[in-house]
Amino acid sequence: MPLSSHLLPALVLFLAGSSGWAWVPNHCRSPGQAVCNFVCDCRDCSDEAQCGYHGASPTLGAPFACDFEQDPCGWRDISTSGYSWLRDRAGAALEGPGPHSDHTLGTDLGWYMAVGTHRGKEASTAALRSPTLREAASSCKLRLWYHAASGDVAELRVELTHGAETLTLWQSTGPWGPGWQELAVTTGRIRGDFRVTFSATRNATHRGAVALDDLEFWDCGLPTPQANCPPGHHHCQNKVCVEPQQLCDGEDNCGDLSDENPLTCGRHIATDFETGLGPWNRSEGWSRNHRAGGPERPSWPRRDHSRNSAQGSFLVSVAEPGTPAILSSPEFQASGTSNCSYLSGSEAGCLQLFLQTLGPGAPRAPVLLRRRRGELGTAWVRDRVDIQSAYPFQILLAGQTGPGGVVGLDDLILSDHCRPVSEVSTLQPLPPGPRAPAPQPLPPSSRLQDSCKQGHLACGDLCVPPEQLCDFEEQCAGGEDEQACGTTDFESPEAGGWEDASVGRLQWRRVSAQESQGSSAAAAGHFLSLQRAWGQLGAEARVLTPLLGPSGPSCELHLAYYLQSQPRGFLALVVVDNGSRELAWQALSSSAGIWKVDKVLLGARRRPFRLEFVGLVDLDGPDQQGAGVDNVTLRDCSPTVTTERDREVSCNFERDTCSWYPGHLSDTHWRWVESRGPDHDHTTGQDPLAWGHSAHLLSRPQVPAAPTECLSFWYHLHGPQIGTLRLAMRREGEETHLWSRSGTQGNRWHEAWATLSHQPGSHAQYQLLFEGLRDGYHGTMALDDVAVRPGPCWAPNYCSFEDSDCGFSPGGQGLWRRQANASGHAAWGPPTDHTTETAQGHYMVVDTSPDALPRGQTASLTSKEHRPLAQPACLTFWYHGSLRSPGTLRVYLEERGRHQVLSLSAHGGLAWRLGSMDVQAERAWRVVFEAVAAGVAHSYVALDDLLLQDGPCPQPGSCDFESGLCGWSHLAWPGLGGYSWDWGGGATPSRYPQPPVDHTLGTEAGHFAFFETGVLGPGGRAAWLRSEPLPATPASCLRFWYHMGFPEHFYKGELKVLLHSAQGQLAVWGAGGHRRHQWLEAQVEVASAKEFQIVFEATLGGQPALGPIALDDVEYLAGQHCQQPAPSPGNTAAPGSVPAVVGSALLLLMLLVLLGLGGRRWLQKKGSCPFQSNTEATAPGFDNILFNADGVTLPASVTSDP
């Protein structure tokens, strides 16, 4: 193979010049105690490499993370049995209970840490341990994703070991949700060295398949010393700067405890419960505890906040559910204009803080100042309340728990402005008067009537149970049971039931337009706004509704919002359902402070759920950043509500989704998106929060308009791992399959239709269901232009018999029947179908044995009516005959009368064979298949995969790919990893690289077959494109054009031609090395003594590289020798064998090495390069190759033709 003359000097220079290039190591040597401490002491962050994470991203605020794509980041398996951890990827295993994709990339090429199933019966634990880490800040959070969807693990546990103590940060025995689940745990302040361990336990009933991905350490590094601090900040003894509110808050923010110095904090009243309750008084229901939660009390805190130790003490509520436990402070003097600040660390179930004023003239009812309720996580959360009172007062803390909940308190700190009455010597005696009654933990307005049970709502004579509150069905005459259920304009202090659940430095708070600083066009009145908070954990702010629903399919949320933010900020709506979190809506971009309106389809949900707004902005950043939400309205959410849109099954998806809505019980979802061109409309996207293998799109219940209806639609299935699109009808609890297509169908839209049959006179409602079943993560699946009309459909253009008989009717005795051979015990018929090539696949078959069909007798199979043809078409079908002579298969066309088109001798064999016939019909027509028995016992004829396509039928083994793949099969071969060749054209937008023009027409309008090798990996080594079975031949010629679009120096893909027969597999041609980005011709001499198939194999020669391999104008010339074309350098490829190509490549490589060594020695003797200009830089030999994030770019001087 000749080498381009302009490339040889460049390659020789590369080999010779590289000897002068030296790697300059990084000489940064961080002290041992500064390694793996979450602080980049070296400029390149090399001191934080292999620390259980890689060096931090240059993006400000990014975590220290490990995605396992390159290596395990220092994590090490310390298991003591065969049940152990290893770095793995989904593509390495074709099946099994593990994940089908990683979490980082969302594909089967991504890596994660996994522990495989173990078949032993003894209980064992697989432990994965981090390297030694150092000095975690009190705000440190470990976030990771784990996969245990098979439910096949007994226990998961995260532990932290420092010194002699091991803390359990998290432990669970399930149940495990579907797909990848997020876990976030806090470490608390850790001084010195520590290690984190993630362990999975299996037993005799749980084999223990678990995976772990995307570990992130957030906010774990201590602040670094500064010469000067910003105004108002505190300068610690170790020169670290901390904010003023971090002084005396019970946490080591400086890193040397100087911010908690007794000289500074001596006048604060701090209670850590290590020796008692201090000045606080408790009622029944609070208990001081210093032991970590065990099996008896799994929800209790496992460590205290003061010491971050399981040996520390804290206060926990042990009151009965619904009965609050009260903790009261001593009496304090009126604070006047000074703020008496209160700080606490709490694990909240429902914690309320009241101000009880004392003395004459003071309000008698306690005033609610702060309420924290709901899922704050198993972490100690910092909070602060500033109190001003003109009267003496007490602070009351009321804790309430529900089933499985807990309220914990630790480190109650009162500032130096909170002065107990007994310590104020100048306090004037209070005038005589009645003292306030014993404080009540709840305001009288919120107490329920005694006639209703705890948790029930009293309205009139009704007691509404909790499960009927906020269920979108009014039980009370005044609708009290549906108030505070998400719908609100935020003018009322109840805020529609939305409760802040933030634990960081941002919170959601109801504010007035006058208070707002972030929106330039704030609405009048009140709205929900992102504000500063006192928490120390997490960055984003969260606000949730009470439990809502179940909801109906028309349920929508309407809202007004604004977002003024830099790129890291966001505003999103999440649906929280039984622990799983689904992203329902996200503000697409910053609205520059301008209020916008939007709506979100929530759809039908069978279980109660919560809605959650999540927001993040930098309030200290430029441009007055902020976010707000107003006028939240839930519409048509009752499961019984009906709208005009509910009857709109016919839909083009231009305005909305009509009566169609996504199902929410699957692990990925259909999404309505705007068109990105003429060929893209309604598509399923790959959501980072909903990777999965199935998606449901359902219509609302419909009443039949006629006994028979026709549903037509357009579908798009494209990609090497796309899977199956299925249509079904649900009626009275039963589901009927109507239609399905599997595998890639080319990068274009296809029309399909299915007949809906109903009982005459029946008004039973039915639902239509489109289900996308994905094989992997490479491909798109889409629907558009769904329509329903009365009457039956025409016969389909394609029939695989997988879901029905497609309207075919057997004549006479009804001997044809639809069957599969899944049991392996079918009386007759092929062992596998042609569509799926499995025993589970279906086909039509007729028994031609003498006892069923005497010799010379016929059995017919007649199609439904096909619509008239505007142009000639080709009808192809696959047929199979028994090993012993099954007889003859005749094919007739019925238009005005019946006339025979084709007669095939159904000779036996193991393979399905292709039949084809040209069809021209100006009127409605039918096709009739007729089997003629030969009188041989145990014989049969089978049919499968009928396809009607425009254009004339091609010759066997030939195809120009203008109408499809002809008789070439692109079914994913299981042993090769499940990837398929595809079909498309240059004019259609594609997510995969492909040639800009085809070879047949030489324009974008032409089509070709292609495969993108970048998807291949350890689990997918190759993809096959197979011809129909061809008869044995002593000499024939295969001629084709191929296209390879790879970077020339780093070519990884290979194209081979194989001959596959009963004698085995033979490689007869191969293309490797670099190829120009153009169509090249190849010819291959073909000879086989047996019936055979031609196979085009696309494979890898190394690591994956983005680049397509394409084929066009394949021509099989039976019985003809190849004629060598006139030589045209660069445009043809001579036929040859794979060994010849490999040998040529090795000889070329040896030549280049010898030239490089000779050039190096010559340069050493000469001392300089005679052809190098004095003005040129002395850069080593990488100057002709430019690397970027997408691959390799070669300069024009290298890639252009001479």
Give a written overview of the molecule.
Helix 1 packs across helix 3. A hairpin with a 2-residue loop joins strand 33 and strand 34. The N terminus and C terminus are likely disordered. The strands form 15 sheets. Strands 1, 3, 4, 7, 10 and 12 form a six-stranded antiparallel sheet that branches. Strands 2, 5, 6, 8, 9 and 11 form a six-stranded antiparallel sheet that branches. Strands 15, 17, 18, 20, 23 and 25 form a six-stranded antiparallel sheet that branches. The chain has four helices and 68 strands. It is mainly beta.
Quick structural overview:
By secondary structure, this protein is mainly beta. The protein is built from 4 helices and 68 strands. It is elongated and about 115 Å long.
Attribute tags:
36% strand, 6-stranded antiparallel sheet, 4% helix, disordered C terminus, mainly beta, disordered N terminus, single chain, 4 helices, 1202 residues
